[in-house]
Amino acid sequence: MTLFDRLAVELSRVVAEQFQVELPPTQIQWDAPPDPTMGDLAFGCFPLAKSCRRAPQQIAAALAPAMARVEGVDRADAAGPYLNVRLKRDLWFADTLGAWSTGLPDWRLPAEERRRVVLEFSCPNTNKPQHLGHVRNNILGDGLSRLLKAAGHDVVRVNLINDRGIHICKSMLAWRKWGEGQTPESTGQKGDHLVGDYYVLFARKLAEEEAVWRAAQGLEGKATDEEKRAFEAQSQLQGEVSAMLRDWEAGDEATLELWRTMNSWVLRGYDQTYARQGIAFDRVFYESEIWRLGKGEVEDGLARGVFQRSESGAVVCPLEDLGLEPKVLLRSDGTAIYMTQDLGNAVMRQRELGFDEMIYVVGSEQEHHFRVLFHILGRLGYGWAERLTHFSYGMVNLTTGKMKSREGRVVDADDLLEELEESCRRVMEESQKRLDLSEEEKAAIVHDLALAAVKYFVLKVTPRLDMLYDPEESIDLAGNTGPYLQYAHARMGSLVRKSGLDPAAVGSFDLLGEPEEVELLAHLSFWPREMRLAASQLNPARVAQRTYELARSFSRLFNAHSIFDRVEDPRLAAQRIALTAAAARALRCGLDLMGIPAPERI
RNA sequence: GCGCCCGUAGCUCAGUGGAUAGAGCGUCGGUCUCCGGAACCGAGUGCGUAGGUUCGAUUCCUACCGGGCGCACCA
Fold first, then answer.
1. How far apart are CA A596 and CA A483, in angstroms?
2. What local confidence, expressed as pLDDT, does residue A219 receive?
3. Which nucleotide is nearest to A494 (CA to C1')?
4. Residue A50: per-residue pLDDT
5. Which positions on strand B lie below 7 Å from a protein C-beta?
6. A469 nearest nucleotide via C1' and CA
């Protein structure tokens, strides 16, 4: 039991004595007072006002003298409606640093609250390379999986590769028509980029065809929806793509062969992209293997009267209880759509992985889709439907405007990492102080810095919100950035090493108590609670924030006081080193949770 | 038109209904005989508007203004 927990028990007892009111210790929330001179912990007495039938001010005043007598408490004051508690320094330091001295404090949820969680994220289409949107998804999904795992859940990270469909055929068709047998080997190009170029080429050729057609039709200005449809209905290219998809679904061997070849190029490219980003999965599903799955569910639902057949022959699910039009689940020609596949997918996942909860990391533009999906699964009678979550995140906008993949106006994921590395290398070489690092070490550090820059840049923003990606700012290594955190971590480790002192050997903390030391201590004390909160809120941004505050707090201490050099009293040096070692561990913990490497030297 | 989300400092973002709303960047000014300056400190400007609920509202509710995203037999 931590000091905070013991104090909660004591406060609960004091409340019971003074007011004969029950306040369970678990409900006591210790906050930090706005100004450290007021105390170390604050308890707002507002929730007690009703049950005690007193004003919060009076309650605080009544509790203060009794709390002041509690062991470990140095002072307890009423400040208006707040009860402020100042802790005995040596006890608080010993309690908190003791928990950090051998490892991390255990902040996992109690066993009965741990769940088996399937977390689906990334889910790229194999018609083009990954871009900035995928990068945000990958980083959020990966960060979330680390956070949930650390909270004690059994997490299964799942990727679903969208490797079939009309969009895939577009790249294939373009390559077959104009590719002249190019391969990743012949061009030296990464496979996903090569295939992506053909996707863009298809879009260009289609636009050319459309321009010719429009001119022939005497059409001018911006195309209307009707004109678009009219064009597509007679388009040569569009027809060829549709034919190719039919061939694929019919199992035409030549088409399948081309599909297998090009997909393998893309997937090999993705392997590199993921490896570079430090992203991994426990299970990878391919849509080509499971796309037929949903039909059975729909037919079953139809037989049971959950779904209906519309006039056109399509199978629909009525949604009047959501105030929506019926949702089509099978087209009138009997083919499946996105929703159909997702139904089958969810059922299959439950069968195969047996999750308590499943979380889909997918952009906010699909909120409606998931709302409907979960609702339909509920209608089918699956109780677990209510334990499905759409972890919705906002779009990534560029300072230069909106991303449009068909126009090629995207930030490519590989290019981004490449540019970040270049800029990190530049900064490293400009700075004079570099220790003698080998080329390999340098390359590793540059890689780690670039990863820290992009991951932290993404994670510190609340996921739900759209974010603005500013290449300039993301490259910046100073201020509230990932590299700053790595720098702070490396500096802490370096201090501990150079001091030659053993942090674990320190048993007493009677000499610590400077404001900067106490501020850092407070961050360490609150750390487990903050991480638990971040996990329960599914909010990696909270991890990012707390980690930054911790690093900054240490920088302040470092700047205000010598840690060991020029410290006269060896006992004080040892105690400060123990504090530094604990802070390094916490910082490392935060970086780990964000999937950011924590090199010893940068 | 309907639904969901968002409007906080010049910019990018934090902020469980509670004490004096915080960071980073940028601007200006400082610190250090420095254990790693990718550091630290200081100055300056702010809750879209109007109501309501509450002892107390940036936070909850309503309306309005401004922006984003959805509302496919696309994915």
1. 10
2. 86
3. B36
4. 84
5. 3-6, 12-16, 18-20, 22-26, 31, 34-41, 55-56, 68-75
6. B12
Residue with the two structure tokens 């510190």: A460
Q: Please give the nucleotide, over all strands, whose C1' is closest to the CA of residue A541.
A: B14
The string of pLDDT tens digits covering residues A409-434 is: 678 999 999 999 998 988 888 775 66
- The nucleotide lying nearest A562 (C-alpha to C1') is B35
Residue A306 — very low, low, confident or very high, per pLDDT cuts 50/70/90? very high
Amino acid identity for residue A355 in this structure: F
Per-residue pLDDT band for A129 (boundaries 50, 70, 90) equals: very high
With respect to residue A230, please indicate whether it lies within any of the assigned structural domains. yes
* pLDDT tens digit sequence for A255-268: 999 999 999 999 99
Distance CA A388, CA A329 (A): 20
Whole-number distance in Å between A134 CA and B8 C1': 29
When divided into structural domains, chain A yields a total of: 2
- Cβ atoms of A350 and A384 within 8 Å: the answer is yes
Tokens, residue A538: 């599914």
3-state secondary structure (DSSP) of residue A577: helix
Please report, for the domain that includes residue A32, its CATH number.
3.30.1360.70
Residue A90 CA, nucleotide B49 C1', distance (Å)? 52
A199: Cβ–Cβ under 8 A, 6 or more apart, which residues?
A127, A128, A167, A170, A171, A174
Determine the structural domain holding residue A18 and report its residue range.
3-87
Whether the predicted pLDDT of A587 surpasses 70: yes
CA atom of A515 to C1′ atom of B58, Å = 30
Model confidence pLDDT, tens digit, residues A243-300: 999 999 899 999 999 999 999 999 999 999 999 999 999 999 999 998 888 999 999 9
- Average pLDDT over every residue of A467-496: 92
User: Residue A268 CA to nucleotide B64 C1', Å?
Assistant: 54
Question: Do the domain assignments include residue A262?
Answer: yes
User: In Å, what is the CA distance from A30 to each residue of A33, A39, A120, A529?
Assistant: 9, 12, 35, 10
pLDDT at A301 over 70: yes
ipTM for the assembly: 0.96
State the CB neighbour count (10 A cutoff) for residue A308: 14
Question: What are the DSSP calls for A156-189, one per residue?
Answer: EEEEEEB--SHHHHHHHHHHHHH-TT--HHHHT-
pLDDT of residue A565: 93
For residue A251, being part of any structural domain is answered with yes
Helix (H, G, I), strand (E, B) or coil at A310: coil
Domain boundary at A266, A290, A314, which? A290
Q: A599 CA, B36 C1': separation in Å?
A: 14
Number of H helices and number of E strands within chain A? 22, 13
Residue A424 · residue A483 · CB < 8 Å? yes
pLDDT band of A102, cuts 50, 70, 90: confident
